[in-house]
TrEMBL record:
<keyword id="KW-0547">Nucleotide-binding</keyword>
<protein>
    <recommendedName>
        <fullName>SRP54-type proteins GTP-binding domain-containing protein</fullName>
    </recommendedName>
</protein>
<feature type="compositionally biased region" description="Polar residues">
    <location>
        <begin position="24"/>
        <end position="35"/>
    </location>
</feature>
<dbReference type="GO" id="GO:0006614">
    <property type="term" value="P:SRP-dependent cotranslational protein targeting to membrane"/>
</dbReference>
<comment type="similarity">
    <text>Belongs to the GTP-binding SRP family.</text>
</comment>
<dbReference type="GO" id="GO:0005047">
    <property type="term" value="F:signal recognition particle binding"/>
</dbReference>
<dbReference type="InterPro" id="IPR042101">
    <property type="entry name" value="SRP54_N_sf"/>
</dbReference>
<dbReference type="Pfam" id="PF02881">
    <property type="entry name" value="SRP54_N"/>
</dbReference>
<keyword id="KW-0342">GTP-binding</keyword>
<feature type="domain" description="SRP54-type proteins GTP-binding">
    <location>
        <begin position="237"/>
        <end position="373"/>
    </location>
</feature>
<dbReference type="GO" id="GO:0005525">
    <property type="term" value="F:GTP binding"/>
</dbReference>
<feature type="domain" description="AAA+ ATPase">
    <location>
        <begin position="236"/>
        <end position="367"/>
    </location>
</feature>
<feature type="region of interest" description="Disordered">
    <location>
        <begin position="1"/>
        <end position="100"/>
    </location>
</feature>
<dbReference type="InterPro" id="IPR027417">
    <property type="entry name" value="P-loop_NTPase"/>
</dbReference>
<keyword id="KW-0675">Receptor</keyword>
<dbReference type="GO" id="GO:0005789">
    <property type="term" value="C:endoplasmic reticulum membrane"/>
</dbReference>
<dbReference type="InterPro" id="IPR000897">
    <property type="entry name" value="SRP54_GTPase_dom"/>
</dbReference>
């Protein structure tokens, strides 16, 4: 039979019903528009055409030979084992190195090397303006007293009352403000003031004297001479207990006092008697490492009075000069913890008890100190 001629099939356009058929796009795609980056690269290529770049000499890379164990036939030497031992660079060694760096930076620098942090000049100016405004306001209370023959209690009463109200508005305790104003009034009574400037000087001088009398401690607070005296006469360490509410910086204050005493040539031991707060022993241990002071600790959930007694006994045997005892923070209304602190004081009879308080709590500090006392 004869072969049928091949019939070429043409692709028919696709259509939807009565719509116009969709013809496939057979046009050649247009070249994309050249961007500014492509144009810049093209100009740069023409500019550098014919120029050959010389390779820059590079330093040879030194490659250390990999450390391998010796073959089984040879004996392993100590030098080979030391070269393969990487256990010395653990977390503990790294922490020790960091503590040593910090200690050398801050603890061994002489006092002349300390740099003061520059204060913001704008803040200083604002504080000075506020202080001058408050001072002028207080002095204005006594403006009407200028030129009087002799000041009497009746003449001073209105100005003294305004001064007391001003002090109370500045968060001074009422009883303290009353003591200061009574002292100022007693100092001014019977004086013949001249001009307003002389009255201002008299009031300022009277207030300074009243504050000095109020803030002067009734007993000596020179712990350095007291510690040396106790060590010389009683042949025992001088004991200081730090107490206060939570988070006021008792451990940090203890470390500062320790550093001061060490600078004066005394041997100081620390006692970790905060056996309640998690991390308290580790915190004091870090301070002891930085200060290179001996720390006496017995862990957590221990009797604080027993830990303190053990530390004092060990310090006496070691011929230490001072023992600083850190205690757990507690609120003044927490009766069980306050009884624990009272037991520690009663059992160990420290030479000094330092209350560490927060300056921003205001009049609550009086309540804290009264109940701790």
């Amino acid at each position: 039979p004869q072969a049928q001629p091949a019939i070429e099939k043409k692709e028919q356009p696709f259509s939807f019903g009565d719509d116009e058929p969709i013809v496939p796009n057979t046009q050649v795609p247009r070249p994309q528009k050249m961007t500014s980056y492509d144009l810049l690269e093209k100009i740069r290529a023409k500019k550098n055409k014919g120029k050959s770049r010389e390779p820059q000499p590079t330093a040879p890379v030194k490659r250390e030979k990999a450390k391998r164990l010796p073959s089984e036939s040879k004996s392993v030497t100590k030098a080979a084992m030391g070269a393969l031992d990487h256990s010395s660079g653990g977390a503990e060694d790294e922490e020790e190195q960091q503590v040593e760096r910090v200690r050398q930076q801050f603890m061994e620098a002489p006092a002349s090397d300390y740099d003061l942090i520059p204060a913001d000049e704008a803040e200083l100016n604002d504080d000075a303006v506020t202080e001058v405004q408050d001072d002028s306001k207080v002095m204005s209370f006594f403006k009407g007293l200028a030129g009087m023959q002799e000041l009497t209690k009746k003449d001073l009463a209105p100005a003294i009352q305004k001064l007391q109200d001003q002090l109370v508005s500045k968060n001074v305790a009422v009883n303290i403000a009353e003591q200061l104003c009574n002292s100022v009034g007693a100092s001014l009574e019977g004086i013949k003031p001249g001009s307003f400037s002389s009255v201002s000087r008299l009031v300022r001088s009277a207030m300074t004297d009243a504050l000095t009398r109020l803030l002067t401690p009734k007993q000596s607070i020179d712990i350095l001479s007291q510690a040396k005296s106790v060590k010389k006469n009683e042949k025992r360490p001088f004991v200081i207990v730090f107490c206060g509410v939570n988070g006021v910086g008792k451990s940090t204050s203890l470390a500062k006092v320790c550093f001061y005493l060490q600078q004066q040539g005394l041997v100081v031991h620390l006692a970790a008697c905060d056996t309640f707060r998690s991390g308290a022993v580790e915190q004091l241990r870090t301070h002891a490492r930085c200060l290179q002071a001996e720390l006496h600790e017995q862990g957590y959930n221990k009797d604080a009075a027993s830990v303190a007694k053990y530390a004092i006994t060990k310090a006496a045997k070691s011929n230490a000069d001072v023992v600083l005892i850190d205690t757990a923070g507690r609120m003044q209304d927490n009766e069980p913890l306050m009884r624990s602190l009272a037991k520690l004081i009663s059992v160990n009879s420290p030479d000094r008890i330092f209350f560490v308080g927060e300056a921003l709590v205001g009049n609550d500090a009086v309540d804290q100190l009264t109940k701790f006392d």
